[in-house]
Specification:
CATH superfamily: Alanine racemase
Shape: globular
Mean pLDDT: 91
CATH class: Alpha Beta
Length: 241
Amino acid sequence: MYINFRYFIIVLSYKKGLFLMEEIVEKLKLINKKISKIISNNNLSKSPEIIAISKTFNLEKITPLLKFGHIHFGENKVQEAENKWSQVKNTHKKLQLHMVGKLQSNKVKKAIQLFDYIHSLDSESLAKKISIQTKELNKKTKIFIQVNTGEENQKSGIYLNQLSDFYKFCVKELSLNVIGLMCLPPLDADTHEHFKILKEKSIELNLQDLSMGMSSDYENATINGATFLRLGTEIFGKRNI
C-alpha cells in the first residue's frame, strides 16, 4: 500500500498547530477561572484585566486569542510592536496595546502613536517627552507610574518617598493622563508585601488602577487589588529567547 508520507506529515503538523492554538485559549480560560475564584473567596469587587504579554511571539501564536475575543496585549519593545501590531490594530478596533518595557526617549513618539497604555513612566525627563508628544498627537494615552517599591539601585522606577511629588508634577504641571501605579517586586521577595504597599500608595493618590502581578505571582496581585495582570509564560509557554 502506498503511503504519502509528505501528506501525512503535513496533516500531523496542521493538527499539532490546531492543538497549540486551542491550548493557548484553554490556558487563558483556566486563568480566568482561577481569578474568578480568588475574587469570590476574597469578596473583591472587581476582576483584573489580563494583559497577554506577547513579546517575542509571532502573530500565528497570538491569533487564537484575538479570535477568542481577547483584547489586551503587551509588548516591551516599540520596534517589535510596530512590526507586529500596526496592521492588526487597523482590523481589530477594540484591541488595546500596552507598553510594559522600559521606554527609551527616542522611541516616545512612536510609542504614543501605537500604544494605548504605557506602564513604565519612571523619570521626569521621560514624563516631559511623553507630555510633548501626547499634546502634539492629541492623544490621551493612559499611563502608569513605575514605582521602585524595593528601592533597588539597579532598577528603574520612582522611589516611594518621591512618588507623591512626582505624581503631582506629572498631572498638574504636564497634564499627563496618569491612571495608576506599576511595580516589579525584587526577585525572591515576598510579593504580597510589595503589592500591599503599591495598593496603599494608590489609595493615597486616589488612583484607580494597579498594574502588578506576572505569571509567577498573579494570584497574590489579584488578592491585593490588581486591575491589570501582565501574563506571558502562563499563557504562551516558555520563550525561546
